[in-house]
Amino acid sequence: MATVRLTMAQALTRWMAAQSIEQLDGSIEPAFAGVWAIFGHGNVAGLGEALYGVRDELPTFRGHNEQGMAHIAIAYAKQKQRRQMMAVTTSIGPGATNLVTAAALAHVNRLPVLLLPGDVFATRAPDPVLQQVESFADGTVSANDTLRPVSRYFDRITRPEQLLQALPKAMSVLTDPADCGPVTLGLCQDVQAEAWNYPEHFFVPRVWRMRRIAPDDAELARAIACLKDARRPLIIAGGGVRYSGAAAALADFAAGAGIPVAATQAGKSALVEADEMYVGSLGVTGASAANNLAASADVVLAVGSRLQDFTTASNSLIGGRVIALNVQPHDLVKHRAMPLMADALRGIEALAAGLQNYTTANAYRSEISTEWNGWMKDVDAVCSAPADSNALPSDSQVIGAVNRACPAETIVVGAAGSMPGELHKLWQVGAVHGYHMEYGFSCMGYEVAAGIGVDMAAPDRPNVIFAGDGSYLMLNAELATAVMMGSNMTLIITDNRGFGCINRLQAGTGGAAFNNMFVDSHHQMLPDIDFVGHAAAMGARAQKAGSVTELEEMTRHAITRKGVDVIVIDTDPAISTAAGGAWWEVGVPAVSERAEVAAAYEGWRDGKERQLGE
């Protein structure tokens, strides 16, 4: 058997460069578009030298924060519909533990990212090495063990030949439609530099193809029969629709059968707003059209959705029979669903073939149109510019201004706080895959980093990123990375001087204003943060809009430019969109001296009565 002598790190990087993935259009692309790295003593000598050797085939990028780098990689994979990914490497201590939040984000959202943190010495000769976490009860524990619960697959490489088994297993998870998620390979720093004679066949180029599971005949027959009896069906489009490339098939199926389609956060932009069967977002952050139709539906076909509480209004919104079309068995049994295990595209195609002569009644189609038209009037009302130009605008008015200024193909990006809810309801998607929201983990600080990943994944489309002042303050270092990388992005910072979203939730559950807004927090002086100056100091073009009219004009110019633009606008933290939405279960105290809490508790009891199984 022919062999080649390489260090473990050299073998790892050479193997990564040899992997490719078949894309939805049949083309072949490298599986790994690059590696994000912050070097330390745990990875600079071994993996750093190996990455330098393959820098032309497997480029290495430098970030400013390990969590931020992982967010970039995750956003890239999400926008690439999980058909291409990146790796992230860190040193052994705080660099590794900084990955935990991002790994949890990828785990919840089922997105592929390969995490390669350095680890302790396998020989243990220099123990305890710098940054080593010492367990007094378990000598095998290192900082990387914090990544175990948030990794779909975890391994620690303590011998160079272990790569022969570990890497194919890692790749099988990264490309699995059901079990996709973060993979962690802890790389012992001495083993990274250790040599071994690897078989040459290990580095033969390989193309990975994402399997498409066809539906079981019996499950398909039951689902078709159930839908044929439906008079008021509804389709929920989840993220699985987008990842499987099923958007066009879903649009055709819905139009032919006359079934309205509502979208989750992950599924939004599978259909555009102009599609005649699209009825908006669903659930807690949902449109009234979608929520009203969901509440009265007799059958709901959930395609590629994990039926999270924001989608189902904490299991209080959907009363009809649910058919769960999904590749993940864990998702097939939620909400007492009738299972239909299948790839979203294959499942939709099979359902369409079995329902060729099925169509909903004209009266139902008319109701769908009426609901949508009513909702669009609500959208227009809340997104129009404020009558009082001196008043601070709401988030919805900011969204309306930016939406009007952006071309149809724009990708909107966001993550946590007020904006995901408002964008889910109000943003008018003009092109498929134009909505990129991280709301499975609702991770503050994702936004700026995600803008880099989205731009790398879709450089031919403009993007606009929304971040509140709280999110921006939490993790903004990658703005400097964006400038350094030559990224194109328009970042809108809405400054409401605190955590306005959670402040409204606090008030909504009867709580006193406390510890969310700057003014309600412990302070000796209130901060007056110059976000324009801060962004400019990191190299961005930055300006402040004094009104939504100015914001719209600034955005119209910025969205067409190359480079990084930041636009700051002050907003009113107290206003959210009253239209649409549904109940969300939050634990309200059963005992309180505050009358407001007691009233909120009664509202919680009303919601519990509508909840599934109560």
What does this 3D model show about the protein?
With 614 residues, the protein is of the alpha/beta class. The protein folds into four domains: 206 residues, 3-Layer(aba) Sandwich (Rossmann fold), CATH 3.40.50.970; 156 residues, Rossmann fold, CATH 3.40.50.1220; 187 residues, Rossmann fold (3-Layer(aba) Sandwich), CATH 3.40.50; 30 residues, no CATH class. Strand 2 and strand 3 form a beta hairpin.
What number of domains? 4
CATH topology name of the largest domain: Rossmann fold
Radius of gyration: 25 Å
Assembly state of the chains shown: single chain
Shape: globular
> From the coordinates shown, what is the CATH architecture of the largest domain?
3-Layer(aba) Sandwich
Put simply, the count of helices is 24
Which descriptors apply to this entry?
single chain, 614 residues, alpha/beta, Rossmann fold, six-stranded parallel beta sheet, 18% strand
List the helices and strands and how they pair.
Layout: E1 3-7, H1 8-17, E2 19-22, E3 28-30, E4 32-37, H2 47-53, E5 60-62, H3 66-79, E6 85-90, H4 94-97, H5 99-109, E7 113-119, E8 153-157, H6 163-174, E9 182-188, H7 189-192, E10 195-199, E11 206-208, H8 217-228, E12 233-237, H9 239-243, H10 247-257, E13 261-263, E14 278-281, H11 288-296, E15 299-303, H12 309-312, E16 321-326, H13 329-332, E17 338-341, H14 344-354, H15 362-383, H16 395-405, E18 411-414, H17 418-426, E19 435-437, H18 446-457, E20 463-468, H19 469-474, H20 478-485, E21 489-495, H21 500-508, H22 531-537, E22 541-545, H23 548-558, E23 564-570, H24 595-610
Parallel strand pairs: 2-11, 4-5, 4-6, 6-7, 7-9, 8-9, 12-13, 12-15, 13-14, 15-16, 16-17, 18-19, 18-20, 20-21, 21-23, 22-23
Antiparallel strand pairs: 1-10, 2-3
Helix pairs in contact: 1-2, 3-5, 3-18, 8-14, 10-14, 11-15, 16-17, 16-23, 18-20
